[in-house]
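Structure ticket #2291
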Amino acid sequence: MFDWLKRKWDGAAKEKPMTASSPLSSSNSHSKNKNTIHHAHIVHDPNLIKRLTDEHIVLLNAYNVILKAVEAENFSLVALKLYEFGETLRAHLLAEHVELYIYLEYVLAQDSQEFNTMHQLRVEMDKISADVMGFLNRYQSNPVCQKTADQFKVQFLEVGQVLSSRIKREEEHLYKLYRPEKALHQ
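Resolution: structure written out below.
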């Protein structure tokens, strides 16, 4: 019985290289996927950059809805949309960390210039993430009201400037580093 289970597990591990959704891939498995980094079993996802840039659009649209809700003094909508914005941003940052940065760390290890560019952007994003999450947590704990609306709006405009600048750098520089391993070594 255990032999059958072991064969089933080994067969499944050979068929599924490590992705963000299956991080515990067997180290003995071998994938036939040409976009797999064989030593780490991390797979290039040809749809990742499209998905991340689509999420940027969702985040910027949500940002604009929140800004309009503050201006309209619709504070219940601000609270709801701020929560949704935070959840979307957390999921986006997690995808970048798990799917983008881990892949780039492996494939750029031999290219110090591109690795350093990626690493600097990652460190910067970690700082931005901490600041933005702190901002979101503050206003989720103490929702925006008439008394705090002006202060919130000033701070939220700053958040918007930082995020839009960061999105631009990601799409113009960081995301261009994400290529299949074979393309990186040509």
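Closing remark: Residues 75-107 form the longest helix (33 residues).
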